[in-house]
């Protein structure tokens, strides 16, 4: 099948099974988990899930061209795939890279089919950007490990079946060297999930508590005490997911939505408003071009490496910057609308969240400076000290 | 649409780069700056004849390479990175682009072969002050009895030009060097690496060229945007590289300054903006080469991002170098001057934003 035929197939399926974007509808999709699962299953059955992944694990075994064709077509539809974005964006590629044959056979296809929802559990209350300071522990017991502790900022944990959980397995080693990643069944009775209400008033995240949660020996992803390398790989996938996942039409702070609102308010003949819109378009368009460049380079065998951090930083600073600009454009209307009547009001409130999730802007800048530009890394006081001798946040 | 360099483009980039480091390094650029001339004619001749840079966008029938604008972009990157003073923007982009966009065979046949071999410099006299950088319909230059009268500002390489293409409300008029009534007053310009002059014409004989001037000049605005953006993004990268290297070897408080986040973070921001700009230029370059309907928009986007990003990078280059970056001896001010000039030349920030909005149909 040629790329054009694939594109036509994807479009035909989406026209049958998904609703096109309606800009007058509030941005939250409103699909239930069951509807999302059914949609994902249909997507997979139509050969549109796991497009570039190996066939033997349930993927389609196709190339980047097909993936890009799908992304392009799909941007015009409201796809209720939210619950699967994390699992398929982060734990799944990490399993493909580090998992055992058995783990890949066991989990990848169910994820693609919509039968398994996954979460990623890294952050803890005592340290966000400094992920490696995590304190949730696992101790060896007969036939496996026993996990105790707490994670936070976990998206979708309330409806997830499994989690990729980063845990300290040897506190006598320096912080990066005593960490292991586990597959944890989130339906285990020792797992408690509590919603976390954020600044917008929504509860898109959870706190997750582990109380004597037993996991078997084969739940380890990669090797015991080598979980940091696995985590770094997952964070790399996360940055690509966040940095390139901006779908212009879905974003109230994106150019398309802003220009419509500007027209609706009759502000489009104001030269300063037009110039502001031009700036927004320019930056958004450049972000799309950059993501296309990275895709083409990856396809040509040039590693993206830490440049994903530049995509993430750009993606996270964009809504913060546009939040400032829309205050100039719309003035007091911003103050008088609630987050439910004006989508940009919600987006303004949500903007700081993107700059802290998945590694703060400051962390991304450090990564770019050190790994792309080659600037010296701060020696740090915690590198070679056994973890149990470090000063930690409570 | 391919957004990464082809093998041929990589080869071209490395030969121009080699030429710049061998024949036009910063020491040579400074010699040119100190001289009367605004560029070294020998460097331009060799760039044209040995590397074929001048003739890249000129069709083979006129003695050029018949390559695409995206190939010229590759060469402009290397020249822009080293601030090499040449008439490439004036001749190969503005004058060549205008002749190719108009419909005057005689002018093409006369001038394009000489541009390609680097034996003639051409330029486009288009600006009439900051408020009309691409004046055609509202031009105050008047054509009468085979002569042209008026004033043009910020004309690139006018002092060296063998031929000037002058925009007027009646069309584009071709004026040759030494024509009666033609006065060229070189500016003591902020940018030491560009020759800029004010051109006054007083009943100066010239030939009105065939073709749709407004459409041609609008097309040339796109080329100018792409070309300037390419030079600027490359110079931005040069500023970033220079400052990054300095941050690795300059020690303060017992550590290289590049360890401190106060230095690291602005450099990371410059990298990120440069990466987005570079991608936007690649997109614009492909759009223009393919004749895409978003070409004008893409070129204006690239220019807007490149111009503003370069000003920021050049400013940070001076600041992060500390006192040494403020000395005449250091190259930082050469980039800073070039950045500011490029930001306001051929349509400044507001004009570019207006052009983006116009092409978007807002």
From TrEMBL, chain A:
<keyword id="KW-0285">Flavoprotein</keyword>
<feature type="domain" description="Acyl-CoA oxidase/dehydrogenase middle">
    <location>
        <begin position="122"/>
        <end position="213"/>
    </location>
</feature>
<dbReference type="Pfam" id="PF00441">
    <property type="entry name" value="Acyl-CoA_dh_1"/>
</dbReference>
<dbReference type="GO" id="GO:0016627">
    <property type="term" value="F:oxidoreductase activity, acting on the CH-CH group of donors"/>
</dbReference>
<dbReference type="InterPro" id="IPR009075">
    <property type="entry name" value="AcylCo_DH/oxidase_C"/>
</dbReference>
<feature type="domain" description="Acyl-CoA dehydrogenase/oxidase N-terminal">
    <location>
        <begin position="5"/>
        <end position="115"/>
    </location>
</feature>
<dbReference type="GO" id="GO:0005886">
    <property type="term" value="C:plasma membrane"/>
</dbReference>
<dbReference type="InterPro" id="IPR052161">
    <property type="entry name" value="Mycobact_Acyl-CoA_DH"/>
</dbReference>
<dbReference type="InterPro" id="IPR036250">
    <property type="entry name" value="AcylCo_DH-like_C"/>
</dbReference>
<keyword id="KW-0560">Oxidoreductase</keyword>
<dbReference type="InterPro" id="IPR037069">
    <property type="entry name" value="AcylCoA_DH/ox_N_sf"/>
</dbReference>
<dbReference type="InterPro" id="IPR006091">
    <property type="entry name" value="Acyl-CoA_Oxase/DH_mid-dom"/>
</dbReference>
<comment type="similarity">
    <text>Belongs to the acyl-CoA dehydrogenase family.</text>
</comment>
<dbReference type="Pfam" id="PF02771">
    <property type="entry name" value="Acyl-CoA_dh_N"/>
</dbReference>
<feature type="domain" description="Acyl-CoA dehydrogenase/oxidase C-terminal">
    <location>
        <begin position="225"/>
        <end position="373"/>
    </location>
</feature>
<dbReference type="Pfam" id="PF02770">
    <property type="entry name" value="Acyl-CoA_dh_M"/>
</dbReference>
<keyword id="KW-0274">FAD</keyword>
<dbReference type="GO" id="GO:0050660">
    <property type="term" value="F:flavin adenine dinucleotide binding"/>
</dbReference>
<protein>
    <submittedName>
        <fullName>Acyl-CoA dehydrogenase</fullName>
    </submittedName>
</protein>
<dbReference type="InterPro" id="IPR046373">
    <property type="entry name" value="Acyl-CoA_Oxase/DH_mid-dom_sf"/>
</dbReference>
<dbReference type="InterPro" id="IPR009100">
    <property type="entry name" value="AcylCoA_DH/oxidase_NM_dom_sf"/>
</dbReference>
<dbReference type="InterPro" id="IPR013786">
    <property type="entry name" value="AcylCoA_DH/ox_N"/>
</dbReference>
UniProtKB/TrEMBL annotation, chain B:
<dbReference type="InterPro" id="IPR036250">
    <property type="entry name" value="AcylCo_DH-like_C"/>
</dbReference>
<feature type="domain" description="Acyl-CoA dehydrogenase/oxidase C-terminal">
    <location>
        <begin position="226"/>
        <end position="359"/>
    </location>
</feature>
<dbReference type="GO" id="GO:0003995">
    <property type="term" value="F:acyl-CoA dehydrogenase activity"/>
</dbReference>
<dbReference type="InterPro" id="IPR009100">
    <property type="entry name" value="AcylCoA_DH/oxidase_NM_dom_sf"/>
</dbReference>
<dbReference type="InterPro" id="IPR009075">
    <property type="entry name" value="AcylCo_DH/oxidase_C"/>
</dbReference>
<dbReference type="Pfam" id="PF02771">
    <property type="entry name" value="Acyl-CoA_dh_N"/>
</dbReference>
<dbReference type="InterPro" id="IPR013786">
    <property type="entry name" value="AcylCoA_DH/ox_N"/>
</dbReference>
<dbReference type="Pfam" id="PF00441">
    <property type="entry name" value="Acyl-CoA_dh_1"/>
</dbReference>
<protein>
    <submittedName>
        <fullName>Acyl-CoA dehydrogenase</fullName>
    </submittedName>
</protein>
<keyword id="KW-0285">Flavoprotein</keyword>
<comment type="similarity">
    <text>Belongs to the acyl-CoA dehydrogenase family.</text>
</comment>
<dbReference type="InterPro" id="IPR037069">
    <property type="entry name" value="AcylCoA_DH/ox_N_sf"/>
</dbReference>
<dbReference type="GO" id="GO:0050660">
    <property type="term" value="F:flavin adenine dinucleotide binding"/>
</dbReference>
<keyword id="KW-0274">FAD</keyword>
<feature type="domain" description="Acyl-CoA dehydrogenase/oxidase N-terminal">
    <location>
        <begin position="6"/>
        <end position="118"/>
    </location>
</feature>
<dbReference type="InterPro" id="IPR046373">
    <property type="entry name" value="Acyl-CoA_Oxase/DH_mid-dom_sf"/>
</dbReference>
<keyword id="KW-0560">Oxidoreductase</keyword>
């Amino acid at each position: 099948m040629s790329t054009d035929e694939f594109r036509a197939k994807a479009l035909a399926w989406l026209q049958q099974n998904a609703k096109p974007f309606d800009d007058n509808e509030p941005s939250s999709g409103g699909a239930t988990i069951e509807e999302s699962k059914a949609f994902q299953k249909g997507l997979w059955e139509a050969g549109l899930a796991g497009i570039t992944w190996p066939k033997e694990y349930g993927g389609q075994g196709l190339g980047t061209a097909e993936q890009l064709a799908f992304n392009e077509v799909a941007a015009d539809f409201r796809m209720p795939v939210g619950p699967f974005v994390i699992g398929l964006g982060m734990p799944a590629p990490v399993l493909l890279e580090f998992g055992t044959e058995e783990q890949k056979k066991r989990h990848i296809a169910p994820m693609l089919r919509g039968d398994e929802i996954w979460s990623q559990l890294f952050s803890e209350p005592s340290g966000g950007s400094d992920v490696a300071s995590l304190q949730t522990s696992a101790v060896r017991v007969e036939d496996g490990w026993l996990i105790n502790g707490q994670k936070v900022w976990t998206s979708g944990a309330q409806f997830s079946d499994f989690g990729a959980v980063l845990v300290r397995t040897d506190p006598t080693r320096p912080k990066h060297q005593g960490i292991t990643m586990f597959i944890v069944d989130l339906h285990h009775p020792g797992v408690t999930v509590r919603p976390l209400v954020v600044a917008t008033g929504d509860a898109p995240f959870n706190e997750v508590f582990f109380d004597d949660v037993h996991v078997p020996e084969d739940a380890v992803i990669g090797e015991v005490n080598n979980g940091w390398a696995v985590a770094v790989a997952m964070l790399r996938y996360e940055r690509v997911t966040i940095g390139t996942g901006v779908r212009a039409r879905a974003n109230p702070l994106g150019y398309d939505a802003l220009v419509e609102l500007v027209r609706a308010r009759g502000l489009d003949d104001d030269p300063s408003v037009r110039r502001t819109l031009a700036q927004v378009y320019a930056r958004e368009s450049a972000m799309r071009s950059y993501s296309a460049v990275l895709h083409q380079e990856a396809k040509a065998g040039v590693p993206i490496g830490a440049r994903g951090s530049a995509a993430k930083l750009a993606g996270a600073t964009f809504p913060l910057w546009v939040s400032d600009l829309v205050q100039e454009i719309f003035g007091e209307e911003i103050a008088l609308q609630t987050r439910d009547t004006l989508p940009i009001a919600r987006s303004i409130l949500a903007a700081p969240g993107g700059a802290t999730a998945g590694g703060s802007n400051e962390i991304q800048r450090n990564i770019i400076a050190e790994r792309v530009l080659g600037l010296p890394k701060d020696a740090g006081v915690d590198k070679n000290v056994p973890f149990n001798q470090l000063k930690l946040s409570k | 649409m391919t957004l990464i360099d082809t093998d041929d483009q990589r080869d071209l980039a490395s030969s121009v780069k080699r030429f710049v480091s061998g024949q036009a390094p910063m020491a040579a650029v400074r010699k040119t700056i100190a001289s009367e001339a605004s560029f070294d004619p020998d460097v331009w001749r060799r760039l044209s004849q040995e590397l074929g840079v001048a003739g890249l966008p000129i069709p083979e029938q006129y003695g050029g390479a018949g390559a695409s604008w995206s190939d010229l972009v590759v060469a402009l990157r290397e020249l822009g990175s080293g601030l090499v003073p040449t008439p490439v923007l004036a001749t190969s982009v503005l004058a060549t682009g205008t002749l190719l966009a108009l419909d005057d065979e005689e002018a093409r046949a006369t001038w394009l072969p000489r541009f390609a071999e680097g034996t003639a410099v051409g330029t486009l006299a288009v600006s009439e002050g900051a408020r009309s950088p691409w004046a055609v319909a509202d031009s105050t230059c008047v054509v009468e009895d085979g002569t042209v009268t008026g004033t043009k500002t910020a004309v690139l390489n006018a002092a060296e030009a063998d031929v000037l293409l002058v925009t007027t409300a009646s069309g584009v008029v071709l004026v040759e060097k030494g024509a009666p009534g033609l006065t060229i007053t070189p500016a003591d310009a902020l940018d030491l690496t560009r020759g800029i002059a004010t051109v006054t014409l007083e009943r100066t004989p010239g030939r009105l060229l065939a073709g749709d001037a407004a459409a041609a000049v609008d097309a040339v605005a796109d080329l100018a945007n792409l070309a300037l953006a390419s030079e600027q993004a490359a110079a931005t990268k040069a500023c970033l590289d220079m400052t990054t290297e300095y941050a690795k070897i300059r020690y303060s408080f017992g550590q290289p300054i590049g360890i401190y986040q106060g230095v690291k973070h602005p450099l990371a921001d410059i990298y990120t903006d440069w990466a987005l700009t570079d991608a936007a230029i690649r997109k614009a370059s492909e759009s223009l080469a393919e004749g895409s309907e978003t070409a004008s928009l893409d070129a204006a986007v690239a220019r807007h991002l490149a111009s503003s990003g370069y000003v920021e990078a050049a400013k940070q280059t001076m600041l992060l170098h500390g006192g040494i970056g403020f000395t005449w001896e250091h190259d930082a001010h050469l980039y800073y001057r070039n950045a500011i000039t490029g930001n306001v030349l051929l349509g400044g920030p507001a004009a570019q934003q207006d052009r983006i909005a116009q092409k978007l149909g807002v």
